Fold this sequence. Notes:
Number of helices: 4
Helix content: 10-25%
Shape: globular
Order of helices and strands: EHEEHEEEEEHEEEEEH
Structural class: alpha+beta
Radius of gyration: 16 Å
Strand order of the largest sheet: 4-7-8-9-10-11
Strand content: 25-35%
Amino acid sequence: xxxxxxxxxxLQEFLNLPPGEGDITYELVEGQxxxxxxxxxxxxxxxxxxxxxxxxxxxxxxxVCPEWAVALTRRGKDWVPTPDIxxxxxxxLPTNWDENEACPVPPDLVIEIISPGQTFGQMAAKAKDYxxxxxxxxxxxxxxxRSITVFYPDAAPQTYIGAELLTDIxxxxxxxxxxQVFQKAKIPPNTNS
Length: 193
């Protein structure tokens, strides 16, 4: 769904829009306010589990937030996506930054969970856009495949399934398996998030 506008929205015009009705969140894409897919139960449970895991690892090292819009650039235009979860270190965003607005700098990590109606290909393209905008890592979580695919700016993506341990030199101390995430979220096999 696109919020109808007569012309292209600037970043400031987008940020000044009134909030969406109900649980609608908008992203700025190509000058238009595009409604983000509304999360369902499994999506929410995966978000909760991942948020908890990430918060434990990064406590005191940065901000971990669900559904926080981030002001980026995509193909030379303002882009304001709202990732399911983001982590931004205090090296990128100072500890004294305290504004009630979109994240002003690219995060270290963005996590996107595939929702019904979305495809892995769509999320992979979005992951590339994030990396091009200087996000350091992007995770795409797929409940159908029970996988977490990690996208890197300087290497091919790597998909973690089952008991394969997800670690990253960028995030010291962070380690878990995709299966642990899906089990903690109590997501049955072969379901949509």
